[in-house]
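Quick one: structure for this chain?
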Amino acid sequence: MYWYLVHTKPMQEKRALDNLQRQGYPCYLPTLPTESLRQGLLKVTDKPLFPRYLFIRLGQGNSAMSWTPIRSTKGVSRLVSFGIEPARVDDGLIELLRTQEAAAQTEPGRLFKHGESVRLTEAPFVGIEGAYQMADGERRVIVLIEILSKSVAVRVSPASLRKAT
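Got it. Here's what it folds into:
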């Protein structure tokens, strides 16, 4: 048995993973917890480490499961190949990815980082730039802005922030 690489349809990695596993194929989709804005709130969701790709473990020979159903599985685009040979992935790489994924599960990737420049997009502070400080619960974040030459911490909705360019 070897690991191979499956190319999925856009944003259908989890769908492909579920459908392949339902058919009995051992698969692995490395993910990282990441902060994102959902309906104006900061939420932590698992995002694929390699968008549009997942790993599948396949055997060779007469006793192995057929590879044919993979291409017609919902969410799957194709099995990655070089010429007519499917791209084999080293077991050591899979183990390294699993180790790194387990270590990253403790701290999600943040949408905004401490000290990062942000621009406020809602009244009364529209257009003002500030420095992101931290999340203040699920519904608010703290931003440090300059008002009358004085630094002031304001609590705003995370949906009202954009990264300053």
